[in-house]
Amino acid sequence: MQQAGKRWFTSESSHAVDRIRQGATVEDKQLALNCYMDKKINVGRYSTPQHNAVILQQKLEQLHLQLCPQDAEQVMACGNFYIQHMVALYTQKALAWAWTKGSKSKAAKVAFLADRQSNLNDALDMVMRHMCQSLHHHQGPCARVGALHEPRSKIEAALAFPKPAQWKTELDSFMQRAYEQAVSLPPGHTCKLTAQKLNNAESCMVSKIADGYFYTKIVICWNDGANQGHIQDKLKALLPLLWNRGVVQEVQASAEVCQYNMKALRQQKSRAGD
Question: What parts of the chain have a pLDDT lower than 70?
């Protein structure tokens, strides 16, 4: 049994033991342990969460034998927590690894770092700063909320550990403040001109005019959520200028279709260089 134990105890494990022993606070020891366990989660073609859980359990049992009772207790408690959430951790690391290889989404990396913050406020600050990168000038209230919602959803989907109720409350409040701080502009020249066309158009042309108007409002450099909100802002400005109830319904339907197909429409507009 001792021979087997030696095979499991690598120089990396020995380094982790030293860092845990030398940790001045519980947080320092936790940081060292998290770093060790994250390295031991192997994401690969022939690896699975279940296999990782077994390996990590064996590693922690060896680690725990080298530590004082208090540190050993922390190792097993934290280790069991990791093992309990291994499926989510495995997925998170796989996504974060894709990020390092050039994936366009940094959400998994942010989720990875937020999960490992000992202070909830620090984790929230990290997430909010990432969300704010999607904000741009000239975004109305709905556009701002949509811009923030998309990265938030991606981050929360990549989180491995459950968060307290304060997490949702703080992010909801943050998005509400962003909505309230936005400036709602009055209908512009293009909006008024489009309303005039819609009010005088034959019924068979209403959808075509509305589709064209909303398509011109798609901003390529904004994310899909921001553009969906932008269409909602433009719709709110346009509707009071329309006279006919039937036209209003068709314009609303056109806006909904544009929002639903936003990803494809934004890609199409990007390829066209509009």
Answer: 1-10, 98-105, 274
Contact 221, 139 (CB under 8 A): no
Nearest-5° angle of CA 207, CA 211, CA 217? 150
* Rounded alpha-carbon distances, angstroms, from residue 124 to 59, 63, 66, 116, 150: 32, 32, 35, 12, 16
Q: How far apart are CA 214 and CA 212, in angstroms?
A: 6
- What tokens does 67 get? 């530590």
Burial of 75 (0-12, 13-18, 19+ CB in 10 A): buried
Residue 61 in tokens: 């049992």
Task: Give the 3-state secondary structure of residue 184.
Answer: coil
Distances (CA, A) of 208 to 154, 211, 266: 34, 5, 18
Give helix 49-64 / helix 11-22 axis angle, nearest 10°.
60
Q: How many other C-beta atoms lie within 10 A of the C-beta of residue 154?
A: 20
At 45, list the tokens.
């073609």
Identify the residue whose tokens are 């000992």.
118
Tokens found for residue 236: 């709110």
221-268 tens-digit pLDDT? 999 999 999 999 999 999 999 999 999 999 999 999 999 999 999 999
| Cα 9 from Cα 2, distance rounded (Å) | 10
- Other C-beta atoms closer than 10 Å to the C-beta of 194 total 23
- The confidence score (pLDDT) of residue 3 equals 42
